[in-house]
Structure formats: structure tokens, C-alpha cells
Amino acid sequence: MSGFADYEQYDALGLADLVRRGKVTPAELLEAAIARVEARNPKVNAVIMPLYDHGRRAIADGLPDGPFRGVPFLLKDLGAPLTGTTMTRGSRFFADTPPSTFDSENVARLKRAGLVIFGRTNSCEVGLSLTCEPRLYGPTRNPWDPTRISSGSSGGAAAAVGARMLPMAHASDGFGSIRAPAASCGLVGLKPTRGRNTFAPVTGEGLGGCSTEHAVTLSVRDSAALLDATHGPGPGDPYTAPPPARPYLEECGASPRPLRIAYTTLPPNGVPIDPESLATLQETVRLCAQLGHHVEEADPEIERGVVIPTFITLAAVNTVVNLSTHPTAGRPAVEGEVETVTWNTARIGERTSSAHYVRATQTAHRLGRQMAAFHSRYDVLLTPGLGQLPVKLGWIDMMMDDVEEYWRRVFAFSPFTVWFNLTGQPAMMLPIGHWLPVAVSVTHSPDSPLCERRTGLGGPTPRPPRSRPRRHPAGLGRARSRGARISARDRYSREGGQRGSAWRRGSRFLGSGLRVPTPWLRTAATTASFTGVGTPRRRPCWLT
User: Fold this and answer.
1) DSSP secondary structure string, 377-402?
2) What average pLDDT score do residues 100-127 get?
3) pLDDT, average across residues 192-199
4) Rounded CA gap, 38 and 220, in Å?
5) Which residue of the set 150, 177, 507, 512 is catalytic?
6) Is 76 noted as a catalytic residue in this protein?
7) CB 107 within 8 A of CB 77
């Protein structure tokens, strides 16, 4: 690959810092990202709409002096209107949607942060799955194992970041669509508190209050800094989350205090959890205790049996509405124009009475009250990230006729995530395990959004490697490009570290057997001693 050779050694804030110091230009970063999309995307099918000239024009016109000035960025093909570009929602029915005439407020804030938008990523149809296999564009593959899902609906975003095309990408989450892809592709994935980011100017909320927008990232600090750039109400929002006491990025460097941490392995639907996920959770529990936190097993007293039926009611009725929102068709979709599960889920919505829908919203609110009572006793709740390791492509099939079996499979794969969409809490997925990526989920009360500010996993204490051999991702390859290189001294002088033997002596295991420079841990680790700052070196082995 030509261009900036050390592109993959940095998270987004690291790249922005190089731009600020004149070590690299936004144009060089964009061309480095484009080169990786062109080389790697055929193997993962993450980017379905290249907008290279859009990114080049943005640079030529002058970028705002934001915290991510010059960093390449991809938008999901769902929920992110961008002036002059089409958004198909991963659906054949919406494929002929005219280009947008406006930016959403969230997209406008991303632009003001200095991000350079240069494409759209794959999504399942209308965001209605936890895999990313739309008939319109075909399946997105997991960069760790091309036979497995990258999860969804933000599967294209996660596969692009996991394949190191860029350090972070736009994502959204209605029942796990940020967190499941992050868990499957070995990334940090934060679902912010309900109302933290605005949906202006289009809607007041998404999926009955379940949906949020944010990103999948390589580092906790990138997730925090991006939330600083995007959070806050938009004009006419029906509600908004309370503002943070100080910037989220500052919280990443705050001093730790002992936390009251609960953990549970009991999912709302009672499905079995993969032993690897359970083992990863137990290791995380032991580490938290070693760091001085009070940790105990505690199952929140909630109405577990209503969690998934309540969500399906909300999703089904909202799907009826979504299928009637083509801007030029003048009619809703008909059978055969959308995928089978989308159609049959909408049929459930058509049979749902208005009273039943209202009861579902009240049930979701009641679940939120129950979790608020739980968090009066505990600061943080840890759960397994997923119920299963990333499943094979085709298992969660939106063309299957049995819609009940489809939703059973969705929530067997990811039984915990939807719980916190209904309650509106912030929840973060952190890549902790080995072999295929394995994650732990961290959740907190929305009234005091600790996991938006201070949670992550790792910290300055090394996490010992497991005895099971790690699937070491070697083949995305050290970028063997010719072009601009940043010296080791320039690269780490700001963090107080250097490469070479200092890298080996001063690095620590973090996340899924990753090694990152110790200075990154000192400067970016969050205060709950849970933090992962991502990795500049972790890449799947089968990509070149």
C-alpha cells in the first residue's frame, strides 16, 4: 500500500494529534484509508458505498478545527442522512431513495469535529437483525473468520474498523447493534444513554426509545472524545439526557475510586451462555477484585420474562411505520420488496393493538425503574457480552419463513444487549477474551453514566494471557507501504515512551491478548480501572 505507512499504529485521537503537529496531512490519512478499503474490502464487504471524492472535497474546502480534524470516517447506511448522498437502509425497497438534501444533526456534529466522511458501511435491512447479510449488498464477513458474522446491524462499521481500514466508524444500536458487532470484531462499542445523542431533525426517538447513535472504536478514549463532540439536545427533542459534569475524555484520566460491582450470568430469556464468555466474565471479575473494587454476584430483580416480548412488540409496530417511509414511492412496501423476516415482523405489528403497544412502552419504563433500584446498590453491572461466539453466516437468516424461530436465534446469540435498550442505560462492550474476540458488557444507571465516562477494561495492571493459544492476527499486515513515516521518537514522545526494546519492556497485555505501550495505559486508562485503550497492532491474520 502506498501512503502514510504508520496509519494503523494509531487510534483516531492519535491520528488527529499527528495532523495538529504537522507530521501528516488529512489528505495523506484519507488516501491511506482508501488504499486499505480497496485492498481489504473485497474480503469483508464492509464498505458498500465509497464516497472518496466527497472526502477529498471536504479536505479541499477546509476542515473545521475539531478534536478529530483530518481523521477518516465512515457512516452507516442507516439513520445518518448526509447531504448529496443516498441512504438505502440496506433494503432493496429503499435502494432508489433520492440523495438527501440535508445533514442530520449528528452528522453535522461529526463534521464539525473535523472527521472526513468517505463512505457508507453495510447494514442489515432497516436495522432489524444482529447480523449484516442484506440481500441488497450481500453479507459482511468477520475479519477474524470470514465464515462467521461480523454481527449487526452495524456489522459493516465493525468489520471496517476490525480490518483496520480506519480507527472508528459511525454505528447505531436498537437492540445490540453497536455492542454485538464490537464484541464480534474485537472492538470497543458504547451504547450511550437514551437521549444522549439527538436524532434531529427527523425523529424524536428511534424504535420506541430503544435506539441510539454513536460508534465502534479501537479505543475507549476515542469513544469518549467522540461522545464529547456529538452529545447534547437538538432543536425540538422530546427529552434529553442530563449533561455530563465534565468532558468524557477528562473522565478517562480521572483517579479511580473503589466501585460496587455486581455481575450476573443470567440472561433475561434463560438461554445457555457459551463457556468462553463465562470464563472471560469470571476473569474480569477476579481482575476487578484485585484492583480493589467490591465485586459480588447479584442478579437484578427485573421481570425477565417480559424483556424480549416487549422489544418485539416495539420493533414490530415500528417496522410497519418504517416500511411506509420511502420518500418518493408514495406507498408502503409490499411482500417481496423486503426480506421475509422484515415483512413478517411488520405483519406482527399490524396485528398489535394500540393499547398493547402502549402497555409495551410502559413495561419498558417499568424495567428502567427496576434497574434504577438495582443501581442504588451497585455502581456497575457486568454481564457476558454475547450468548455465543460469532455464529456462522446464514444462521440468523432474514429470509427464513419462521419469524418466531428467527427472533429466537437472534436472542440466543445476544441475550443481554436488548435489556439495556429497553431501560435506556449506557452499556459498553469491551474486547477482553482470546481466540475469536470475546467481550464483557459493562452497564450503569443513566442518571450517573459511569460507563459513558469511566468504564473500560485493562488499566495499568496487566491481564495475564490465558493458557489457550491466542489467534494472533498477523496478516493485515504490518503496512508495508512506502511513504511518510513517523519516527519512533515522534510517535511516542508525547506519551513519554519509545519503540523497540522500550515497547517490549513497557507494554502490557490488554483486552484479547493485545499489547499496547504502557504510556498509553497511563494517559488513557479510565478511572474505574476497567479501561482498554484499544490496540494499534491487532489485525486479523487472513487479511493482507
Assistant:
1) T-SEEEEES-SSSPPBTTSS-TT-S-
2) 98
3) 98
4) 27
5) 177
6) yes
7) no
- Find, among 321, 343, 352, 335, the residue nearest to 402 by Cα: 343
Which one of 91, 123, 150, 153 is the catalytic residue?
153
d(CA 119, CA 34): 10
Instruction: Please state the rounded mean pLDDT for residues 65-75.
Output: 98
Given a cut of 80, whether residue 89 has pLDDT beyond it is: yes
State the cell numbers at 188: 470497543
Q: Which phi and psi angles does 290 have, rounded to 5°? A: -60, -30
252 confidence band (pLDDT: 50, 70, 90)? confident
Q: Which three cell numbers stand for residue 204?
A: 424524536
| Cα(357)–Cα(113) distance, integer angstroms | 38
pLDDT at 462 over 50: no
Local confidence band at 1 (pLDDT 50, 70, 90 cut-offs): low
Q: Is 422 exposed, middle or buried (0-12, 13-18, 19+ CB in 10 A)?
A: buried
Beta-bridge mates of residue 120? 49, 75
Q: Does the pLDDT of residue 475 top 50, yes or no?
A: no
What is the Cα–Cα distance from 220 to 226, expressed in whole angstroms? 10
> What residues does 431 pair with on adjacent strands?
439
pLDDT band at 453 (very low <50, low <70, confident <90, very high): very low
Separation of alpha carbons 34 and 28, rounded Å = 10
| 177 tagged catalytic | yes
Please check whether residue 38 is in contact with residue 58, taking contact to mean a CB–CB distance below 8 angstroms. Answer: no
Joined together, the cell numbers standing for residue 237 give: 427533542
153 cis-preceded (ω within 30 degrees of 0): yes
Q: What is the pLDDT of residue 91?
A: 98
- Determine phi and psi for 430, rounding to 5 degrees: -125, 130
Give catalytic status of residue 153 as yes or no. Answer: yes
Cα angle for residues 264, 418, 268 (degrees, 5° grid): 45
Top mean-pLDDT range of 228-232, 482-486, 514-518: 228-232
Residue 498 has pLDDT above 50, yes or no: no
- Count helices and strands (H / E) in the chain: 18, 15
Q: Is the dihedral of CA 36, 222, 386, 120 positive or negative?
A: negative
Classify domain 7-234+259-524 at the CATH class level.
alpha beta
Phi, psi (rounded to 5 degrees) for 118: -135, 20
Is the pLDDT assigned to residue 183 strictly greater than 50? yes
**pLDDT tens column, 29-66:** 999 999 999 999 999 999 999 999 999 999 999 999 99
What does the DSSP assignment read for 300-344? ----GGGHHHHHHHHHHHHHHHHTT--TTT-S---TTSS-HHHHH
Beta bridge partners of 215: 170, 190
